[in-house]
Design brief:
Layout (H helix, E strand, L loop, with lengths): L4 H8 L6 H5 L6 E7 L2 E6 L6 E6 L2 E5 L7 H11 L4 E5 L11 H10 L6 E5 L1 H11 L1 H12 L15 E3 L2 E6 L2 E8 L6 E6 L4 E5 L19 H13 L4 E4 L5 E2 L1 H27 L4 H7 L19 H13 L14 H12 L1 H15 L2 H14 L4 H17 L3 H17 L17
Parallel strand pairs: 4-5, 5-6, 6-7, 11-12
Antiparallel strand pairs: 1-2, 2-3, 3-4, 8-9, 9-10, 10-11, 12-13
């Protein structure tokens, strides 16, 4: 359960990082990676977030607790490192892969006749859990599509924090001091923790060893500029160790400072260029084409667009400041897609003509145009076999061409819908997800 070799493997990721090959491949179940004799973190195979363990004279402080599916493995890993009771759990945020393993800790305490751990979280977690209850079906559908999990079920039980804080909180436990700070980024309920004695920052999903997840097209609003501000605040502490929400910890003040600066620059660049273009009166489509990142930034091992896509971040900044209207008046009160497809098919010579045109653009390599035309063909004639055949080919090609899991998931799902119309179970899959439910 305790794996000292993983620290060296994590260090090597600084120069070349592949989540499956360079990190996940070496993890079996959930494994403890020591930082020092009083601090460690647990990395788990798959999509679950890291868990950080802090020894105190009164017991353990645990930052995050994994998912329902990994709770047992994480608990076993904790007990391989320490037999101290768990007296405090801090949620970095309320996502399924970070805040849903606590019931097992509660059960252990009850069986030993001890008080349940005190759970601490930022105040917006309560609102998140209420939203999760109200939109359980929607969340099941979009996460099943995003992570290609058939029959994905959304939990209906939530372990709420016992103590909520708003912006800052200092936790004094067993001779240890932890400083908790609220930040907005992937979520509005995020906590990052500073452990001054160990010069360690525990970031949660502010750092995930991928381009920041600030643009997810199927999820609620994300916050690029406040995310960058949180990273700058972490950097001001001058940490020497950084424990991320996913992936290996980063050791060394210079590396930590570089990662925090690069990630903040990534977010600031997209946010500021998008807002500047909005102030100039540009339409969303033009802004998406206009925004550029500093050369080489996306090639950094910890900023590759393998989960989210910079284009999606631009759209989320637009949504924050400008709502959903994209500047195209035809999109303000659009025709139903089926009516639009029928009208365009009438011009193009029916679904056959649209499917043929889509195939031609696919051969030319213009996947965006091919995507529009194949979608029009299926909307015009939903039972048209050739239209579905072309739509499946187009969306399979689109999934293959993308780097981000989010785009791969949506395009693969579209391909599989058409394949099922053709009597095929679907071959529009994509590699397993790299980071958690976010």
């Amino acid at each position: 359960m305790i794996n000292h070799e993983l620290r060296a493997i994590g260090d090597a990721c600084w120069d070349r990082f592949d989540f499956g090959r360079d990190w996940n491949h070496h993890i079996s179940g959930s494994q403890v990676i020591p930082i020092n004799d009083r601090l460690a973190y647990i990395a788990s195979r798959g999509v679950v977030g890291n868990v950080t363990l802090v020894r105190t004279d009164d017991g353990l402080v645990v930052i995050d607790c994994g998912s329902r599916n990994t709770a047992k493995n994480i608990h076993r890993a904790i007990r391989a490192w320490s037999d101290q009771p768990i007296h405090t759990v801090i949620y970095t945020h309320g996502h399924l892969d970070h805040a849903f393993g606590t019931p097992l800790f509660d059960q252990e305490a009850e069986a030993a006749g001890l008080p349940k751990p005190e759970v601490i979280g930022q105040a917006n977690i309560e609102r998140r859990f209420r939203r999760y209850r109200a939109s359980a079906g929607w969340n099941a559908n979009i996460n099943g599509r995003q992570f290609k999990v058939a029959g994905f079920t959304w939990p209906d039980e939530y372990r709420y924090p016992d103590t909520f804080y708003e912006e800052e909180m200092t936790l004094e436990k067993g001779g240890r001091r932890l400083e908790l700070y609220h930040g907005m980024g992937e979520t509005d309920d995020h906590t990052w923790t500073w452990i001054a004695e160990d010069k360690t920052v525990v970031t949660g999903d502010f750092v995930i060893w991928a381009a920041p997840n600030a643009g997810n097209p199927q999820k609620v609003q994300r916050f690029a500029r406040p995310w960058a501000e949180a990273l700058r605040a972490m950097a001001a502490k001058k940490p020497e160790v950084l424990v991320p929400g996913h992936g290996p910890a980063v050791f060394g003040a210079e590396r930590v400072a570089t990662l925090l600066d690069d990630t903040a620059t990534f977010l600031e660049t997209i946010h500021d260029q998008t807002l500047e273009a909005m102030n100039e009166g540009l339409k969303l489509a033009d802004i998406v084409d206009k925004v550029t990142l500093p050369e080489g930034l996306l090639e950094k091992p910890y900023l590759q667009p393998t989960y989210d896509d910079p284009e999606f971040l631009v759209r989320n900044v637009w949504r924050l400041y400008g709502g959903w209207y994209d500047g195209n008046p035809a999109h303000l009160k659009p025709a139903h897609p089926q009516a639009l497809g029928t009208a365009i098919a009438a011009i193009a010579g029916g679904a056959d003509g649209l499917a043929e045109a889509a195939s031609q653009w696919l051969e030319k390599g213009d996947l965006r145009l091919a995507g529009h035309l194949s979608e029009f063909a299926v909307q015009a004639e939903p039972d048209h076999k050739e239209a579905h055949r072309v739509r499946a080919r187009v969306n399979q090609a689109r999934a293959k061409a993308e780097t981000s899991l989010m785009a791969k998931g949506i395009f693969s799902d579209a391909a599989n819908v058409s394949l099922r119309e053709l009597g095929d179970d679907g071959e529009g899959g994509y590699p397993g997800s790299r980071v958690g439910i976010g």
